[in-house]
Design a protein that fits this description.
The structure is a homotetramer.
Chain A lengths: L1 E6 L5 H7 L6 E7 L3 H10 L4 E3 L3 H4 L6 E4 L6 H10 L3 E5 L6 H14 L3 E4 L6 H11 L6 E11 L8 H16 L6 E7 L9 E7 L5 E7 L1 E13 L3 E5 L7 E10 L11 E10 L7 H13 L9 H19 L5 E2 L4
Chain lengths: 338, 338, 338, 338
């Protein structure tokens, strides 16, 4: 039985408590929050769980093996660092930290402490993304041409992070997980329409190896909610619509066939191929439950984190460079070592 | 009665012939094409109209007042120049020319010859775009925040122009027409997935005055066809879906209200407003017919071209700078004089 | 403070407990169910509420003012009758009873006992249906021509009632509430595809006064889920799509204009009118909460039940006659007194 | 070379002329219409084809082998009879005749004259319907449970036939072609909302062998256009949406599994099965072209009409009985011999 402390009881905290309450496997002993009103709600909803305003109660409690941190981004580093130093395994909300430097420090600290550091990139554990990875990695869609995501809606404006850190973070995690490649450079454009606030509209382009490109359009100020991603390969193409109640994934047997005729300067270079469309049936499972089981298995030494500190750090690096490019109006920023 | 020569009888030429055949107003006397097979089809479809392989027959024919040029982009300049020199009014397919230099020359020549030079940016004459302009220019949607267009499908690859010159050209014309503002700088990213071919995927961002931004996502290699544009203002937001058989325009009474409370650092800066949605009924008219009548009125001196050579030139300038930015992976290029 | 007993803790019971727990207005003192496992779940979810396997504990408890009954249809009559005899106000799930005779008895009993008898036709309390009624009753859509509903999905097969009693009951309640008219006759067709089971596909047509017609297509064996209703009037037409996350209602300014030219035998009798479409913004409220407040107000004598026993009885009568027509393959059955 | 006369040059006639103009196979020699204005348009569009106001010119012309009749329903019988008597093969618009008696006479006459009598049920020749038949007849969807079609839009009111004869005729032809079964009885409900006009809304239910049911909802007065058909079998289910530009057919691997446990009276009788969805790629061919080639092959003795007079007659019989049932408000009418 692995015992948890959950830190932060806002929007996401209750889901963490619920999903780490697994009879015979794990339990939540303490819920911490700096807001007494939130703790009152926690006590009402989970009457068997202790609550505390002081997170020190978690660090000092030897019965607690691991913590799940669901607080605003600006407190991630401090809390995760303290938890690791106190010898706890850590699951922290995405994005992992506010800076690459903080992220590197956490990764090193977790290694030194021999504790699991995992980032809650929940999307990675959805049946849809699991299936996309399988379609891509098996070679079924062929060489990847592009990943193009539209993730827009009305609200919720964040005040400590811009829309890239809030929404594009999902696509960056999916990209990292699905593709067997790291970005070479990033060009990003972003605009703020609220004086004094962060960018609420942004367009991020990632140059990938092999002429692949990733593009992410995120927006807090759109009249309609859209969650649509196109992933095209040389053999097949995927449309992922996360708002579809069923048929979230559609696989199109479509593409182009290149004509290698050198004489074809004035003729069409490519011909089109249109075949069947197929929507694989996806299991109905809660991603956070899958993730919770995976985190437990990692703590028990049976699995290696899919969304570990190293991946969390890669995502923070993209977020940092994208923000840097936004400040320079799209000027491309190469990745270190790429 | 204004008499036309139509040059180029490929995909678009037949539409020009049909729309310039207006009893009592205009007629098409000659159709020219360098391809005898196409002329044979022209003769079959329009038995009363002469055909010629030699465009000189048009220049030298004093009965011809005006020409409509529907040939590949690379021949636009040469044909339009010859037509103007021969004293004909000119309607030329978009984009007007391959370079800004060529465009400037045509604009000057038309002025010198006192002839109408108009570019066939057909989209401008659709009821939907006319209505969008009215919604924007009347102030009904408030201060414009962004224009965000997704214009993707499978094919048709062009070989002499990239996807920006082929598809983004529509959005650039709409932007030029709808907004009362000129872009300050452009950042564009594009990729080619066909060896030796032009970019088939591109993302163009335009920095506009007043923190407005325009973004255009164009793609010849998408599994599904999408024609969707979001235009958000401080008061209302528009969704323009050109594939909808009816309800192409939806106007959402949605947005944010800014809280000017300086104490609100840790509270939400904005609150959301959600009201009715409204889809104005649009007349069912053929845009090219509206455009043809407008061109005739311009020739007769009663109207000034909406899509004249000056506008065509502005579009070519954006296309040229966007292509330049693409070659530099998104590096922003300022507009001359902006 | 009005005190409730909730009977039946299956799918719907928890929602009743939650919605009748209104600080300062009403509370749930006891939850009854014949299944100990369900009571265990109730105790876990609502730790402050007593549970019992024996419904007699509710009848004999003088502190309980009212009951909410969420059991299978076959037990509605017996439980509601006992509750009324014990002097409790009653909210019972729809359909109210299995037969008209039972329904008449309950209505009479409630009157004799001077207790409120209300049926949980939840749909009536949704913002969408409230708005539809207002659009219809205000005359805005003109004379009603038809109500046409498609309500299909895969599952859940019921074993004690057919698909008409399970799904068409929603439309019958909406019709009763929205229109100021009672059906004249019913013709229904239904088929069972599971040996020994009730009809799982059915088509119910109601002849209404003034050449209006209502048609309800219900199906437990459809590959896709659809909840779409068309309501056409002489002036406007409504499309109600309950699966739309927003824009559930669309009002179309469309219709026909009759030509009263007696000479028009061989010409078109009607001309079409197409105007704007408009989607009114609907408040985001939980229907059951609205209904709970209304039930409390009825008990307190301040309001009269919208979905009282008399309405519940009218719905049961339609269900009974529709089932009778189904047994006779669509033979129309007139309504008594119509 | 087979030579045609085309009778009627309204909406559909031009398509017939175009599709029967097949170099080396067939040609249209004469177009007949009683309206001189329509003949003028015919002469303009097809300059090489003769026109006549007098249909006798066709009967008496020995060079004409076959006629295609695209006139209002009320003249079908008279024209087809005259054509057959004149020794011409006949393709006539659907529905074939106004009455069963007329239909029987034409079928007999064609047999006596040894001429081909075919009805232009164009839908049967679409790739979608061809594929549906293959999916049904191969047993891939299992035992057919139901066919449920929604075919509604705004307009066009006909004045000589009701909405069943105008729109349901498509579904009746599809049903006849797809299923290997004939209806046992029909129950239909219809209403007219225009004084003096035919029914503009109708619901037709067909009882088929083996507890299968077909239901057709047709409406000239709907705010939106819908063309959607559900076809469910014991193994798979089909959704046919004719307005989808691609993916017109979707095949769902969904259904129920029956539990044959006799003890399951109070438990669920069925369990649900949800698998992949699959949209077969359909060829892009014009149905009328396929039909024209088939008609030629029938005339040449190489094929037997798929939509011959016998099928046309079966459809007219259903239309006649459905209208009869409508007059009796849904009273079921058995089919002769069923």
């Amino acid at each position: 039985m692995i015992t948890f402390g959950v830190i932060g009881f806002g929007y996401w905290g209750p889901n963490l408590v619920r999903n780490f309450t697994i009879p015979g496997r794990s339990q939540v002993a303490v819920i911490a929050d700096r807001d007494a009103a939130k703790l009152a709600r926690a006590a009402e909803r989970f009457p068997g769980t202790a609550t505390t305003l002081d997170v020190e109660d978690i660090w000092s409690n030897p019965a607690i093996d691991a913590v799940a941190i669901a607080t605003p981004v600006r407190s991630h580093f401090e809390l995760a660092e303290a938890a690791l130093k106190a010898g706890k395994h850590v699951l922290v909300e995405k994005p992992m930290t506010e800076t690459v430097e903080q992220g590197e420090h956490l990764v090193d600290l977790a290694a030194a402490q021999k504790k699991i550091l995992m980032v809650d990139h929940t999307f990675i554990y959805t049946p849809a993304v699991q299936r996309i990875r399988q379609l891509v990695r098996s070679g079924e869609i062929g060489q990847v041409y592009y990943y193009d995501s539209l993730r827009v809606n009305l609200g919720l404006f964040q005040h400590d992070v811009n829309v890239v850190w809030d929404l594009a973070v999902h696509d960056l995690a999916i990209l990292d997980y699905v593709l067997d490649a790291r970005p070479l450079a990033v060009s990003a454009v972003g605009v703020s329409h609220v004086p004094g606030a962060c960018e609420n509209v942004a367009y991020v382009s990632l140059f990938m190896p092999g002429d692949a490109v990733a593009h992410i359009n995120v927006n807090w100020l759109a009249p309609v909610k859209v969650r649509q991603t196109l992933i095209a390969g040389s053999k097949k193409m995927i449309v992922f619509d996360d708002l579809e109640p069923s048929e979230k994934l559609k696989v199109y047997d479509r593409g182009v066939t290149l004509n290698d005729d050198p004489e074809s300067l004035y003729r069409t270079l490519v011909s089109y191929r249109t075949g069947d469309m197929w929507a694989p049936n996806l299991p109905v499972t809660e991603a956070l439950h899958t993730e919770a089981l995976h985190f437990l298995a990692c703590i028990e030494g049976r699995e290696t984190p899919i969304t570990g500190g190293d991946m969390g750090l890669r995502i923070v690096r993209v977020l940092e460079l994208a923000t840097q490019s936004m400040k320079q109006r799209g000027t491309p920023i190469p990745f270190p070592g790429a």
